[in-house]
TrEMBL record:
Activator of Hsp90 ATPase homologue 1/2-like C-terminal domain residues: 15-162
Similarity field: Belongs to the AHA1 family.
Superkingdom classification of source: Bacteria
InterPro entries: ASHA1/2-like_C, START-like_dom_sf
Record-given protein name: SRPBCC domain-containing protein
Length: 166
């Protein structure tokens, strides 16, 4: 059970050791090669993976549309857990509204846990809006299928990237 409203939970198993899966989530050279919607490129401006640290980056669509986003890391426990609050931002890292919906939650918490068994890593991602208004919760709920589909595509890219690293 999640401690936030409208939470998501996605579990996926990767044919890779937990240390490698954790590394590709926390090393900017790796992260830039798989994170985000399929077809988008990611520019990592900053990645300071420690409690209170920040990831700041921009995603470019195939059509050239650029969106900035940030993670503020809450908990970092190598190689088993990452907790971060995700937001849309400007180039300086100031939180802004999502470009696609003025009611999208300003903050989404993501709790990533990794468990290894027989050389394979089970990744569980839980998350949802934090400090959200009723309108923001409704917007998240309406977009839930697209969010899940988006993570499915991102995790497919992660799977392919992990295979290329072994």
């Amino acid at each position: 059970m999640t401690a936030y409203a409208n939470g998501l939970e996605i579990t996926r198993t990767f044919d890779a050791p937990r240390e490698l899966v954790f590394k590709v989530w926390t090393d900017p050279e790796h992260f830039a090669k798989w994170w985000g919607p399929q077809g988008f490129s990611l520019h990592v401006a900053k990645m300071d993976v420690r409690p209170g640290g920040m990831f700041l980056g921009s995603q470019r669509s195939p059509e050239g549309f650029v969106m900035w986003g940030k993670f503020t890391y809450q908990e970092v426990t190598p190689p088993e857990k990452l907790v971060f609050v995700q937001s849309f931002s400007d180039e300086e890292g100031n939180t802004i509204r999502a470009p696609f919906d003025p009611n999208w939650p300003l903050e989404i918490i993501n709790i990533l846990t990794l468990e290894e068994e027989n050389g394979k890593t089970s990744l569980t991602l839980q998350g949802g809006p934090v400090n959200a208004t009723e309108e923001e919760l409704a917007a998240f709920e309406k977009m839930r299928p697209m969010v899940q589909q988006g993570f499915g595509g991102t995790f497919a890219q992660l799977d392919a990237y992990l295979a290329s690293q072994q």
